[in-house]
Amino acid sequence: MKNILGVILFAALSGAGLGVALGYLEGRLPDAPAENKAAEDIQQAAAPVSKGPVAEVPETTFNFNRMEQGSVMRHAFKVLSRGSKPLHVDVVNTTCKCTVGGLSKSDVPPGEETEVLLEWTAKQSPGPFRHGATLETNDPRHSRIELVVEGEVVESTSLRPSEFLFGKVQAGDTKEASCYLISSLENDVKILHHKLSNPELAKQVEISTSPIDEAELDQLKALSAVKVTATFQAGKAQGPFFGWLELETNLQGAEKLSVPLSGNVVGDISIFGPGWISSQNLLQLGPVDSKTGKKARLLVAVRGEQAKDTQLTVASVDPKVLKVTLGDVKQMGENLAHFPLILEVPAGTPPMVRMSKAGEDDDAARGDGVIVLDSTHPITSEVRLKVRFSVE
Asked: Which domain of life is it from (predicted)?
């Protein structure tokens, strides 16, 4: 009997001990993955830095959200050097409406960083936008990196009209163009500063601002507004003109605004011929085959009392590869003279593109070719022709 009781007691004690042991194990099992993870983290922290240059970009897209039309915003993107060798960064391309405000440094030592500043001016109509830049690096795994700024252009502040259009201005005359800076949020609109982007055009344009009365404010359906007037004094140079009027205001979200300003100075001298666009003083030459070249024949007409005495000469040509020839004058009447003008892209001209983008200043280095004719006419002493072409 005692032996039986002993066996039962041993079994009971053994079962209890086993239960405690199992309970202890069950309580500890969930902690095992955390211990393994900690060990992995320690191993990763101790792992060597990746060999060679390594680029890491925490963000590649930034949203400006809502932007006032004409306003300017900028954002700095960070590029981190995470490798064992210096990282080299270059900005190789931007979309047509996005500019790179700066690259803090191109060669980035391991463990350091550089910043790429993207700036965008909301010159487009209200609506969404998406623009950016392309970076190239010496990291073989991230040799090209796309940076993007996006958002929406809005018009709680607006310019009406949105540009200064002078149209045709007679050489020697003065003409005005106006616009209204309007706010639907602010009670008092102010122009703090203004500047013309084209220094030569600035010599011919005077900017003034003036308040408007209650009747005009009601017509504009605005909380407040100010009238901006540009007065253009045409000189003796005949041809189109273009520039940006940059305004600084007291309006939050529209501290900086850019307003286009354009027109065309005309006079007694005019040009005719195939491919000629008189409103832009532009010859549309189009694509040119490098093997054969291309010619265009225009006619320069001089009218008025000075027609008999006016002489023309070619003053400058850009690009210099263009050949420009003025023929002998032909008197067509008492007050009309014709000068033949021949323009040629010679055979063998290397590939090039001379085409301006919409909204660019009249700057030959960035777009169309430009021909300047000198004149002895007392009012029109210079005629500028633009030439748009590409050699393939």
From this structure: Bacteria
